[in-house]
Amino acid sequence: MEEPTGDALFFDYLPKEARKRAGASLAELTGTGALPPAPLRSYVNVTTERAWSKPMARLTCEEVRLLSGGDERVWHWLARPVAEFVRRYPAAEITFFPGDLTMQALRAFPKIAEVDAAAARLLRDADLSWAADYYSSNRSLAREAAQLVEAAKTATI
Description:
Elements: H1 26-30, H2 43-53, H3 61-68, H4 75-88, H5 100-107, H6 109-115, H7 117-125, H8 130-134, H9 139-154
Helix pairs in contact: 2-3, 3-5, 4-7, 6-7
């Protein structure tokens, strides 16, 4: 299977056991129903609203990337699948740069550790050694990546 990209179905890149509850949407799993339309009809808002109500098995990698940067409730259902994805494809370029979903997951590491310790351990133990060299041309991203990786590696889970 080739490297995942934004329009690929996220759960197609995971083993069957990681697809538990993937037939339900986040709207169903959280009990909130559809997200109310945001006043600003941007790509991010429209895509996130649509993704929230889709069965998770139909989410694209890009939709998961966007969801992972927003409402923390997603981690109750996406922590393990995202951690497994990052373990398998840490440098996958979903939309903007290699490892963009990995960076989103590392930013959410404290929440992931809070809701799913096993997912946090998967993320912590992923091979992230490539990040420092890859991001060296972008000082702020390199610094953020180094800090996030260090925080995950030294976290008590």
